[in-house]
Design a protein that fits this description.
Elements (H helix, E strand, L loop, with lengths): L1 H17 L11 H8 L9 E6 L5 E5 L12 H11 L7 E7 L4 E5 L10 H7 L4 H15 L8 E5 L3 H12 L6 E4 L2 H7 E9 L3 H11 L2 H14 L6 H14 L23 H11 L6 H6 L24 E8 L2 E10 L2 E9 L6 H16 L6 H9 L3
Helix pairs in contact: 1-14, 3-8, 3-9, 5-6, 8-9, 9-10
Length: about 400
């Protein structure tokens, strides 16, 4: 163990040698330096806010109350709503049974957001497999009906309409065209006969971790809609918008400039301000209930959608930024936390006026990385203390 601690301390010392203390901007010098850095053409007049994670003081802001396209930074709102309205330890169950009456099949879902169209990926990631449901259902029906798949009726409950459409398409390609009918959960329970299969998802916490790490749009949409349902609204975009406003009001955050078209950030109709996202990140960081939000964010140069960022653009910031990325054509965003010597900053950068195209996007990302590289630095004393206390 001593050898491990020594190696860890050596790594920290190496990082410190790469980033001398004099290279890290002080809070007082940040405004003038950031003003210059944000004027570069690659960012095209972005919105930005930088907040002291300890005091909540706004250290720097530019266009921070301007309505901007968030891209996948929108998922910060979805993740917060998920943790606010859903139990992160709960999971989802999907069961398939033959019906009590001949030539019937019943599927009892639970609005599982984790259902996968790929069986290999489903097995690898412990996801409910739609192909598995489809194949096993067909096999069981053939056995029960002497090889015939004609005149079959399928009752189902609590499945997403897209999953039902995918299931129908999967069966149709194999010549199986049953009649499908959505019924109540009570009707399903009263119709269940011999079991065919049962599938359970990982916990909501694990699903959310994957969602943020890899910026999964479908999962973000479904989790937000489940949160909306739990909040007493509809399982739709309108319900999500109302849920987000309610959630922000709990944190005393003004949501008047928030425009919600979806929960994933794919829509170019979405609008947020850097202040809204910054204040939400600041306030959730202080509550254990939302600890998973920070833990699930990609880490600069190490994991998820930030795995390849900062390594060449701002190597001093590798491992020190936990943030949600966002990209649309003409938009590059990044929001999260950056370690800066003796403190942590919350930052939000929304560059939604850049030229369209991959080249412009890459330039904007590099510019954002370099800006954060000016304030990123490890807290060596804290890290040494923590390592020394490790048994």
């Amino acid at each position: 163990m001593r050898n491990k601690i020594f190696a860890y301390l050596l790594a920290l010392i190496t990082v410190a040698s790469i980033v001398p203390a004099s290279a890290v901007l002080s809070s007082a010098s940040i405004p003038s330096v950031f003003d210059g850095l944000l004027k570069i053409p690659a960012l095209s007049n972005p919105a930005m806010v930088l907040i002291d994670g300890t005091t909540g003081e706004v250290v720097y802001e530019k266009n921070s109350f301007s309505q901007r396209k968030p891209a996948s930074v929108m998922k910060i709102l979805s993740a917060t709503a998920t943790l606010d309205y859903l139990d992160p330890t709960s999971n989802f169950k999907t069961s398939v049974n033959l019906g009590l009456t001949p030539r019937t099949l019943v599927i009892q879902g639970s609005l599982d957001p984790w259902i996968s169209l790929n069986d290999v990926a489903a097995k690898k990631m412990h996801r409910t497999s739609l192909p598995r449901i489809a194949f096993n259902s067909m096999s069981a029906l053939k056995v029960a009906n002497h090889g015939s798949l004609k005149n079959i009726k399928v009752k189902y409950s609590n499945l997403y309409s897209q999953d039902v459409a995918n299931l129908k398409a999967f069966w149709a390609k194999r010549g199986f065209k049953p009649t499908l009918k959505q019924v109540s959960a009570e009707d399903i329970l009263n119709s269940q006969g011999e079991p065919v299969l049962t599938s359970e998802s990982p916990t909501i916490a694990e699903i959310l971790d994957f969602t943020l790490l890899w910026s999964d749009n479908l999962l973000a949409e479904r989790l937000a809609r489940l949160a909306s349902k739990s909040a007493g609204y509809g399982l739709n975009d309108q319900g999500v918008a109302l849920t987000f406003v309610d959630m922000l009001s709990k944190f005393n955050i003004d949501a008047s400039k928030l425009v919600i078209a979806d929960a994933s950030g794919l829509s170019k109709e979405n609008r947020v301000t850097a202040q809204i996202i910054g204040q939400l990140l600041y306030k959730t960081r202080k509550e254990e209930k939302f600890a998973l939000l920070y833990k699930s964010l990609p880490v600069s140069g190490i994991s998820g959608t930030l795995k390849d960022r900062f390594i060449t653009t701002a190597p001093s910031a590798v491992g020190l930024v936990h943030a949600k990325t966002g990209t649309l054509n003409g938009t590059v965003t990044l929001a999260g936390y950056v370690e800066s010597s003796d403190r942590e900053f919350i930052f939000v950068t929304l560059a939604d006026e850049i030229p369209k195209g991959t080249r412009a996007e890459n330039k904007a990302r590099a510019a954002i990385d370099r800006i954060l590289g000016r304030i990123a630095a490890p807290n060596i004393e804290s890290e040494i203390s923590q390592a020394s206390q490790t048994p």
